Every structure is written in C-alpha cells, then in structure tokens.
Amino acid sequence: MKRTIIYGAFLFSLTLTAQQQQRFCGFDQTIKEQDRKNPGLREAFDRIIRNIQSHQKDGITPGLGKLVNGVYEIPVVVHVIHPDGAAVGSIYNKSDAQIQAWLDRTNQMYAGTYAWPTNAVPADFGTSAVLPVRLVLAKRDPNCNATTGIVRYNGGSLTGYDTSGMAYQTANGASRNAIIGLAPHWPEASYFNIYIISMFDGFASPNSGLMGFAAFPNTADPYYESFMKSGVVTNDHDTTVAHEFGHALGLYHTFQDGNYQAQPGDPDYCPPTTGVCEDDDDGYAIRKEQEVDIHYGLFLRILRSIPVPGQTIREYNTIR
C-alpha cells in the first residue's frame, strides 16, 4: 500500500508540473449544484451501485445490455455551438473529420491502445484495464432519419455568446439553459448529448482554464449532458472527453470534496504540514484501502485515460 501511495504522489507531482497551464474540470461545481437542487439523490445512486456490487460478490450477475464484439456502443450526438460567421473547420467550429478523429482517439484511450508519446507515461505506470465502451456518432436521429451525429448551431443568436461563449463560473456569456434551448437534447435514453462550445466565461485559451464538465448519471434527463470547449477536439493528446464521460458513467474525482484552493503556504503547492504523522494536514478523510486504490487510479489514470479495475466495475454497473 505504501508503494501505491508513493507512486501516486510522485506521478501526481509530475502531472502538476506537466500542466502548468492549469486545465480544470467543472464537475465539482456541477455536482454541488445538483446536490443543492436534489438533496439525497446522489447518495441513492451510490447505494444502488453498492447493492449491485454486493450481488456480484455473491455470484449474481445483472443482465448485460447490447454489446458489439464485447463492447458497449454509446450513441452520441455532438451539438457544435459556433459564433456567428465561424466557418466549418475554424477554431470554434471544428469539422466533422476533426470530431470523428477526436472520438476515435478517445475510444483508443478506453481500449488501452492509444499511442502515448514515449515520455508521457512512466515505464512503471502499469497496465491499463480495458474499459469496454465505445463512443459512436449517432447514425439515426430521433425520427429515424440518417444523420452524421453532428449538429451545428449559430450561437450568435444568444446574447453574449460571440464574445464570451458559455457563462459557467461567471455571468459572461450565454447561459447553459439558453444554449440547450437553442440546441435541444436528443432523447437521453437513446443518445449521450455532447455540447462543443467556443469558450467558457470569455476565457479564450483553447488548452487551459475550464476545459469541460459532465453531469452525474443520476442527473435529471434535461441536464444529463457534457459541455466542452472547442479546443479539446484538436489539442494534442487531449483527455477531456475521456475524463468527462467517466463522470457521466459515475466516477468521482480523486480527492472528491477536498479543498484544492487552500493556500499552500510554501512553494511546493502541497498542504501545510506539521511533521507529525498523526496530524491530518490535508484535511482529507481516511478512506478504506480499496477506495484509496480506486481514487488514486482515477486521477492518475483517467487523467491519462488509463482506467483501473475498480473504475471499470463501477462504470459497467452504471451502464447496466
């Protein structure tokens, strides 16, 4: 167990060093808002997952959904919300080919076959647990007409969108509800809705800041979706959609509910320490060994989109 934690801390520091541009996920804010609107709903979902896992330990296996060569195919519809006048293939209006290649890379990450650069993953990182999920652009729309699974909308009709994109952490940009009103969900029981927006809160950088967020599986249908900024589609080795869809399948962040904004007090960006092992310096509750393994794996591997066994079990049960 000590070996796991040491490796985890070491790789965690490497990740921070490699990401000085600071890419953020908006899941924590999203789930807090969900908990405020629907108190107790997430706990009920977690109890259902634990119950399924308990049955599995007893040898009772839930019925499987439809598989294609042993893989769950998830139909997705990508709603591209572009600024007024943005040509297809431009920075805020990615082409169909770019979007397809983006999903192809994500599926390779889930399958454990993605070709990471040789210096991107340490040699002792371990073997990926294959996540048998494939994101597939929808072939039929809700009326059974042929579709590419990609729908484009002129966001310029929404107040603030052309200059600031979507308002999420500030009031700058078009609201989430306004965007969904422009680009309505396709039925949630048949599709996963992904929204590609220009930017969040007027922050134009394509590879830093808030990159995206996704709703938890127990979210009410009108808000079960994922929003991501346009840059993630073509950023080199970008893991945003793989990470966010993990949330949509029921995965938490590594240090869920921790205060990552706490002031470090020293230049190493670690929590202030007393040097006394018995003191809870980081304020993070002691977890069971299995939880620690899974949570470390979630940050270190889903960030690189390399799932670990505990994650694949939880995601399996969510799909079922």
From TrEMBL:
Protein species of origin: Chryseobacterium endophyticum
Gene3D superfamilies: Collagenase (Catalytic Domain) (3.40.390.10)
Signal peptide range: none
GO BP, sorted A to Z: proteolysis
Domain Peptidase M43 pregnancy-associated plasma-A: from-to ranges: 184-265
Keywords per UniProt: Disulfide bond, Hydrolase, Metal-binding, Metalloprotease, Protease, Signal, Zinc
Protein name as it appears in the record: M43 family zinc metalloprotease
Pfam families with a match to the protein in the record: Peptidase_M43
UniProt xrefs under PANTHER family: METALLOPROTEASE MEP1 (AFU_ORTHOLOGUE AFUA_1G07730)-RELATED, PTHR47466
Matching InterPro entries: MetalloPept_cat_dom_sf (IPR024079), Peptidase_M43 (IPR008754)
Family the entry assigns: Belongs to the peptidase M43B family.
GO molecular function, one term: metallopeptidase activity
